[in-house]
């Protein structure tokens, strides 16, 4: 089972990704006890998101008319909506999502004895670790900022003046004990879960994209080093070449099918990400530069904007790697030692299959925003450009 392999994996990014997916309750269960834990985690996740959304919407209602406060609350609501949308969407496609995980277990090439293949897979793991560490650091820094802001502002204040991380417009005195401690705990627990929901799906998608791209690189290496015919083996050398070449074609077909499954599960999520990233970066930038913002709030949203930019880069770069490496299959196939094959019936069959492989590789594997456009590094520059335009309009409001 793929889940069992991941439990014993030494890949830090995969271990962390599996842990986060289990926390929100969307991961494969191997027995009934695990399934009950997953169901409980999912119910708790939905409860935390709904609770946080109700608090934010009520705060927006009572703060209407104060532009700066509305921008702050609207930014929080957008993050909640994104997290809730991802959870619901993946729950709807959970069977396809689980099939995606199992497909990776069955078909992805493991590290063999070839040093070049080992280097390709190690480079992939190292890049995943860097991306996951930085985005997790930024998200946790943001959550810590939300928690520390009221703690620092409550120093020296009377019990009746204490502030919560988020305003709660209710009738009983939330600043008095024990109501304050209960409300503070509920808000912090909800906040932590919102942070997990916000980053875990993007972590999974980034890791899967980069590992799929590394599989294309391994296949490129194998195509260029496909079985070479020796002078003593010319009688049966073409048959051996063709048998090996057919295995590589099957691996290429499997990778294409896997990318199609990724597209089927995540295309709506990709569209939501691309549409909201520019608005989120714009609002974060405004909140960092807001005149009446406290130092802790500025630091919080500085982590926020750094996390958004890193997440956008991680997301678009992994999609771009998928495009580039799937295109490079054509060049690797052409560089394979097909020219030494004899021009007989078997040799012509190899050449025809090679031509078909090159033609198919000219159509790249990619993730799209629900079919509107393919996501690549060009998307990254466009989103940042749009965010700057929105920010300029907002500062002149």
What is the alpha-carbon Rg in Å?
26 Å
How many strands, which pairing sense, and closed or not: the largest β-sheet? none
The run of helices and strands is HHHHHHHHHHH
Q: Compute the separation of the termini in Å.
A: 56 Å
From the spread of the alpha carbons, the general shape counts as: elongated
The secondary-structure class comes to mainly alpha
Counting H and I runs of at least 4 residues, what is the number of helices?
11
Strand residue percentage: under 5%
* Unreliable residue stretches: 1-8, 229-235
DSSP E strands, number: 0
Q: Secondary-structure blueprint of this entry?
A:
Blueprint: H1 2-7, H2 12-24, H3 32-62, H4 67-92, H5 94-107, H6 115-153, H7 179-224, H8 237-288, H9 295-335, H10 345-361, H11 377-395
Helix pairs in contact: 2-6, 2-7, 3-4, 3-7, 4-7, 4-8, 5-8, 6-7, 6-9, 7-8, 7-9, 8-9, 8-10, 8-11, 9-10, 9-11
Short description:
The protein has helices spanning 2-7, 12-24, 32-62, 67-92, 94-107, 115-153, 179-224, 237-288, 295-335, 345-361, 377-395. With 397 residues, it is mainly α.
Describe this structure in words.
The structure is a single chain. By secondary structure, the chain is mainly alpha-helical. Helices cover 77% and strands 0% of the residues. The chain contains 11 helices and no strands. It has helices at 2-7, 12-24, 32-62, 67-92, 94-107, 115-153, 179-224, 237-288, 295-335, 345-361, 377-395. The longest helix is centred in the middle third of the chain and has 52 residues, at 237-288. The protein starts with a helix and ends with a helix. Mean pLDDT is 82; it is low at 1-8 and 229-235.
